Amino acid sequence: MAANKDKKMVEQITSMDVDFAQWYTDVVKKAELADYSGVKGCMIIRPYGYAIWENIQRELDARFKKTGHENVYMPMFIPESLLQKEKDHVEGFAPECAIVTIGGQNKLAERLIVRPTSETVFCEHFKNVIQSYRDLPKLYNQWVNVVRWEKTTRPFLRTSEFLWQEGHTMHETEEEAREETLRMLGVYEEFYLNCLAIPAITGRKTEKEKFAGAEETYTIEPMMHNGVALQGGTSHYFGDGFAKAFDITFTGRDNKVYYPHQTSWGVSTRMIGAIIMAHGDDNGLILPPAIAPIQLVIIPVAQHKEGVLEKANELKARLEAQGIRVKLDDSDQSTGWKYSQYEMKGVPVRLEIGPRDIESGNCVLVSRVSREKNFVAIDSVEAEVEKMLKFVHDELVERARVNLAQKTTKAATYEEFLDAAENKPGFIKAMWCGDSECEDKLKDVTGGVKSRCIPFNEEHIADTCVCCGKPAKHMVVWGRQY
RNA sequence: CGAGGUGUAGCGAAGGUGGUAUCGCGCAUCGUUCGGGACGAUGAGAUCGCAGGUUCGAGUCCUGUCACUUCGACCA
Are A263 and A354 in a shared domain? Predict the structure, then answer.
């Protein structure tokens, strides 16, 4: 019986080491996060997965409001002519647009693009509501779906339709807009660390990797367990490029006409993929407590015996009073089944309560990260649970830090770079001359290693570009991405 | 878009040479269990991805098509 224990527990989930991609898909399905739909690349986000998204939304939305932003809703259809107003923008998005050509029974006079992002619609609106410097800044955000016709899709990481938030702001001065761009990247960074338990690298995208139409793109790049990067969120400074293309002007304090300066920033349901791949293990998902739909699950043992369910309910009420998200599973599944079930779903802490515990005045607490049983006094359960939730968060951060550090290699020379790209999955820190041809070449010879960003805290690794040997301008973090 | 793989019950699979579909899990009911995915009994559940074709007869052979998936290319 005991000999089969470990084997049985991993039976339904492919081991990460055997096949990481399959492991990921297994976790998505077994943790009941999402299901495939009848439309390619479109997924059904199931209640448990959506609850994670709701928690993410709640946390982020509070941060957006606190920094002065207002939520709005823009239409999902964009007239084709509108999208075409900014040249770089349309070139960037045209290949992946879904287009509506028929309304009801009639062919439309103008085709409608299903929004891949909403800069253009916001701009059209900004043109109407911005007249004076008194109308600035405009600090808008929306929580919506967008569609990008991706060729290769994967649940959460890359789907044809996905949910996200897109912040769009307009400012009187360049300084103010640049400040906003970095402020929101900072919000993302803080959220990743404190809510998702993911310490991530932040920095600036190279010219080649910038958003279509942006002057600067800043990014947050979390690393997954297997060393692959994920573009975890972006914040763009647009300058007045869109404002000029859309003829958005305002009268300044000196009664002269100016173009406002613009930003946009977004994170998506892709973050759920990041949580899975940054924290999960062979037993399934591990959720950071801050966004876990269930922070603690109570498993009653021998629940038919007198007093067990009563005690379990009492504990549930006490913990809920502390603001903890609790589920009591009193279904008639076996306890062993329940243990496995909630481990697959990544519930941070489990509480077991049975006749023996009630007699001794204890209960059993098990964290999803250590999976060791701890006997704690029922009297002090609130404090012990709080402590364990904090432990899970801290442990996840620590593990992710170690993973990031272990899977980051410095390369001073071309040979070192190739060796790292070939043999050491993860990030490579290396110097760069600033020429996009070197980016192309490195990507080519390594089969996919691209520049992630120029981090804010650059290190000096060498004097010359790792690729061409010309004087280096920046240190770049390189890596493969999802 | 290129190369491969897979579509049979909710899930996973078996179904040489054509003869009317089988198993495991899950599900339902009842009983016994309950501290790491319990056990027994009974039962429900499938127009074999879809559309054509060959044939007396197609899950099986042929043609087309769709979806999913892996790896690449592409992608902010």
Answer: no
